[in-house]
Design a protein that fits this description.
The structure holds two protein chains of two kinds.
Chain A: H1 6-10, E1 13-20, H2 27-37, H3 43-55, H4 64-67, H5 71-76, E2 83-88, E3 92-98, H6 106-114, E4 118-124, H7 131-142, E5 147-153, H8 162-179, E6 184-188, H9 212-218, E7 232-233, E8 236-238, E9 250-254, E10 259-261, E11 265-269, E12 273-282, E13 285-287, E14 289-291, E15 295-300, E16 311-314, E17 321-331, E18 337-338, E19 342-347, E20 350-364, E21 369-372, E22 376-377, E23 382-394, E24 406-410, E25 417-423, E26 434-435, H10 437-440
Parallel strand pairs in A: 1-3, 1-4, 4-5, 5-6, 21-26
Antiparallel strand pairs in A: 2-3, 7-16, 8-9, 9-15, 10-14, 11-12, 11-16, 12-13, 12-15, 17-23, 17-25, 18-22, 19-20, 19-24, 20-21, 20-23, 24-25
Chain B: H1 19-37, E1 41-44, H2 49-62, E2 70-75, H3 81-93, E3 98-102, H4 103-108, H5 125-135, E4 139-141, E5 158-161, E6 189-192, H6 200-210, E7 221-228, E8 231-234, E9 248-254, E10 265-267, H7 273-282, H8 287-291, H9 301-308
Parallel strand pairs in B: 1-2, 1-4, 2-3, 4-6
Antiparallel strand pairs in B: 5-6, 7-8, 7-9, 9-10
Classes of the chains: A alpha+beta, B alpha/beta.
């Protein structure tokens, strides 16, 4: 534990990451240790956990109680949702989306991974890469999480054997790379003993890499934005119409990708009108350049009709607009999604009517087999969907832009969030999927 | 790429944001999203630090235009006078409209009964929910943070409430990317938490960075307090000290500001923001653990109150 000064604390970066793995893999212990060793668990929280553990007749404090928030979960010993946890070191602030690892909770993992820049996938060194590990890798690949960490846990139970670790790391990395996961870092750990979580392990001097926390602290959080398409979904038009600002008209939004500069020529979609950026207001302060994920207000040369839901893009780098959307989706609602379903589609700041035209296939995550024309998707299903929208949308592929290549489907009747969608191809690599048509007896 | 943008020192890479900038940008995005999608939003404003930061962010989100929301204060009748003064000053300075839902009114009318322990926090739910109904607020900003308490760790940024203001953890919608879903039926409303991802330390660092003025009770001062349930409470007409409790003068400050009857002070000599931040960074207690009696009632206390419509 290092002590931190105010100065050190004030200029750190923020990393959002997600965990995947089951209680059996020691996920709660890993999360508990990260929180505990970085001082995010404080005395009163520990006391509450100790008291609750005692009242259940458990001798040792159950670290899972730190992370299971709701009574229904405590009574049933399950985790029903994504929980968000916060901790900090002198080098970085962390937001952890802690997702349960059971089969039926794919949607939670997808939710947690959607905002994550890194995912930690846990395996038990005694079992190696199992079906669930492959499922976690597939979700990380589908959601295009930039960094993956394979934490090979319980190394103490395999005699800290380098060969065991190397075999698992090799098998997982080959599989994840095939799916297009851009970067995998494998780390041998024992969450229970504390090896390589926060402190380097004395029992594994054959391992020369970083501990889990060191890796989390140093992994890059910003990308080379020079190669990103700049995108600004307009959230709100700011028009004070006051004596001080009679003619101010600014287009407010959070830059979803790339950078914008004063003087740049931009196009407003879907109208296609072009104009020039005359100013950028960064929350009241004029700047020459702004980048994702800053919330800004753009001032434009021409008084053209722009409103919430429009997308401002560089004129030389505009996405195509279309009313036919083809995407990989994860269905997150209890009621199924069926062909012919009338829905609302929210993309960026725009919500339009849409209809489900076709569900070409359902994907089984365990072996990546495709089941053609399932007719419907139920909760936690992942599949391909074709939609027709009532108005044209400027869509990027999710591979190019996680913010402007994603959308959600909403039930127009009760507002339920039905489905998470990612435009374009499922995986970064050539589709590594097997066609399971023969097993299904489908007749084409 | 020839130009290198200005970067905050310490972040190391061009185009990286400091954690405070990232949190600020996210909160502004949430405020603007609500302004774009709702008819009658309101900010819960108590004059406490979290609601002060919320108001500051809302002002920045719409500058140079005024904030397109009104404020709502649920007044327990046991407020610190310094905080009420601050509230009224803020309302006047920014030319805002303030709604007040008063617990005392409900007690005077016999609708609510004073609890034997004198604490009024649990009594806030009814005045709050009835005010939301009568004013037809459809989005209600709260300063709740996920780091505060276990039940809040699962809270959404947009949290749907039915016409009884009830929170059903199983009816909450998954939140994907930054695509918030604010759709609701007439009579329902959405509680919105722009500070969801902030920690206590982030809030204080942001206050320091932005030079935001706070009520004096957040800084060390001498005050007459007495000990109850292991907490230093302010002596006053609300119900203390009682028999066997003795008043003493101590150097204290408040980490949280709520109802006088259940908000405890901490021993402190921190008179500046830097000293407060250093104290929090070194503290071994959460802010609620150190200062809130009402969360200690049971393992599921917060969860139960949230279900009933509490913030």
């Amino acid at each position: 534990m290092t002590t931190t000064t105010t100065e050190e604390l004030s200029a750190t970066t923020l990393l959002r990451f997600a965990t995947a793995g089951s209680v059996d893999d020691g996920k709660s212990t890993l999360v508990g240790r990260l929180l505990h060793d970085s001082k995010a668990v404080l005395t009163d929280q520990l006391e509450a956990v100790e008291q609750a553990s005692r009242s259940r007749g458990q001798e040792a404090p159950d670290l899972a109680l730190l992370t299971d928030g709701l009574r229904a979960e405590r009574e049933q010993g399950i985790t029903i949702d994504v929980a968000y946890r916060y901790f900090a070191t002198p080098r970085r602030r962390f937001i952890l989306a802690d997702t349960p690892g059971h089969v039926q909770y794919t949607r939670n993992m997808v939710t947690g991974a959607s905002t994550a820049e890194l995912t930690v996938i846990l395996v038990d060194a005694r079992n190696g890469v199992v079906e669930q590990t492959r499922r976690h890798a597939a979700i990380a690949a589908l959601l295009r999480v930039p960094h993956a960490v394979l934490a090979v846990n319980k190394m103490d139970l395999v005699g800290y054997d380098e060969k065991v670790f190397a075999a698992i790391a090799e098998e997982f990395t080959a599989y994840a790379t095939e799916l297009g996961v851009p970067e995998v870092t494998a780390i041998p750990i024992s969450a229970l003993v504390g090896d390589n979580v926060v402190e380097p392990s004395a029992s594994m001097d054959w391992y020369g890499g970083p501990t889990v926390l060191e890796h989390l602290e140093t992994v890059p959080v910003s990308h080379d934005l020079a190669h990103c398409h700049a995108r600004l979904p307009v959230q709100y038009v700011i028009r004070p119409q006051t004596a001080d600002h009679p003619d101010y008209r600014g287009y407010a939004g959070q830059i979803a990708a790339g950078t914008f500069r004063v003087g740049e020529q931009v196009t407003v979609l879907p109208s296609g009108r072009t104009t020039t950026v005359t100013g950028i207001d960064l929350l009241g302060e004029p700047v020459d350049v702004a980048w994702t994920p800053q919330s800004v207000t753009l001032l434009l040369a021409d008084d053209i009709d722009i409103s919430r839901g429009d997308l401002i893009v560089p004129s030389e780098d505009a996405p195509p607009t279309t009313q036919d959307v083809e995407a990989t989706v994860c269905h997150v609602a209890d009621a199924p999604l069926t062909v012919g379903h009338r829905v609302l589609l929210k993309h960026g700041t725009r919500t339009v009517k849409a209809i489900v035209k076709d569900i070409p296939s359902r994907l089984t995550l365990d072996d990546l087999s495709l089941h053609p024309h399932p007719g419907r998707l139920v909760a936690n299903d992942i599949g391909r969907v074709k939609l027709r929208t009532a108005e044209p949308l400027p869509l990027d592929s999710y591979a190019d832009s996680r913010r402007t290549g994603s959308f959600i489907l909403i039930d127009p009747n009760d507002g339920t969030t039905l489905t998470a969608g990612m435009v374009g191809e499922s995986f970064a690599s050539p589709e590594p999927v097997k066609d399971a048509a023969e097993d299904d007896g489908w007749d084409f | 790429m020839t130009t290198v943008a200005t970067i905050e020192e310490g972040t190391g890479t061009p185009y990286a944001l400091s954690h405070l900038d990232a949190l600020e940008s996210e909160a502004v995005h949430i405020f603007r999203e609500v302004a774009g999608e709702f008819e009658r939003p309101v900010i819960l404003f108590s004059g406490g630090k979290d609601s002060i930061v919320m108001l500051h962010l809302a002002l920045k989100a719409f500058t140079p235009a005024p904030v397109p929301f009104s404020l709502l204060h649920v007044d327990t009748g046991h407020n610190f006078p310094e905080v009420i003064e601050y509230r009224d000053r803020a309302v006047a300075r920014h030319n805002l409209r303030l709604h007040v839902a008063s617990v005392q009114d409900y007690i005077d009318r016999g609708v609510l009964k004073e609890r034997p322990d004198g604490t009024r926090n649990p009594l806030q739910t009814l005045p709050l929910t009835e005010k939301i109904q009568s004013e037809k607020f459809d989005a209600v900003f709260g300063g709740g943070r996920r780091d505060e308490e276990k039940a809040r760790a699962k809270e959404r940024v947009f949290s749907l409430r039915d016409e009884f203001s009830q929170w059903d953890p199983r009816r909450q919608r998954p939140e994907l990317w930054n695509l918030y879903n604010g759709r609701h039926a007439p009579g329902e409303h959405v509680r919105v938490f722009p500070l969801s991802n902030w920690t206590e330390l982030d809030v204080w660092q942001y206050i320091a960075r932005e030079g935001i003025e706070l009520p004096e009770i957040y800084f060390a001062h001498e005050r007459e307090v007495f000990l109850r349930n292991g907490m230093w409470l302010t002596a006053g007409e609300w119900g203390g000290p009682k028999d066997g409790e003795t008043v003493e003068k101590r150097l204290i400050r408040y980490r949280t500001v709520g109802d006088m009857s259940c908000t405890g002070a901490v021993d402190s000599d921190a008179t500046t923001l830097d000293a407060v931040i250093a104290e929090i960074a070194a503290s071994r207690l959460t802010e609620r653990g150190a200062t809130r009696a009402d969360d200690k009632l049971s393992e599921a206390a917060m969860e139960d109150r949230k279900r009933e419509g509490y913030f």
